[in-house]
Amino acid sequence: MKMQTKYWLILAGAAALAVGGTGVAMAQASSVIQAMADGSVGEQADGYLGIKGSVSSVVKAEVDSINIKRRAAYTDLAAKRGVTVSDMAAATGCKTLSSRVQTGQSYRLNDGSWHVRGAGAVALPDYCATVG
Prior knowledge:
Helix content is 52%, strand content 10%. By secondary structure, the protein is α+β, with helices and mostly antiparallel strands. A four-stranded mixed β-sheet has the order 2-1-3-4. α1 (3-18) packs across α3 (57-81) and α3 (57-81) crosses α4. The radius of gyration is 14 Å and the shape is globular. The relative contact order is 0.20.
């Protein structure tokens, strides 16, 4: 499969997941939503939620549960598209970072650095230009 075609297939699936096409990408419990609002939980470039600092055991369990559901969705879609799970997750991460992270929310790039979204666009990893 040509590399460009592969990335378009990944992108199409990522867009569906990022906008909640499976109900998994953004399904979150109220404690996770609050943790995202206060900056202790944020979206990551790898397509999963991350914990910035310390959170309660309830929030950690909910983040873990959401990430398990996301991985299942990425695995299913990756198999259908003929790509790796990590490629599917990262492509979804690109879409999620660019479309779902709100002003004031924390997000983590693939280099491990945490940022807070200001008034401008989220600084995306270089590979996001390839898939988006």
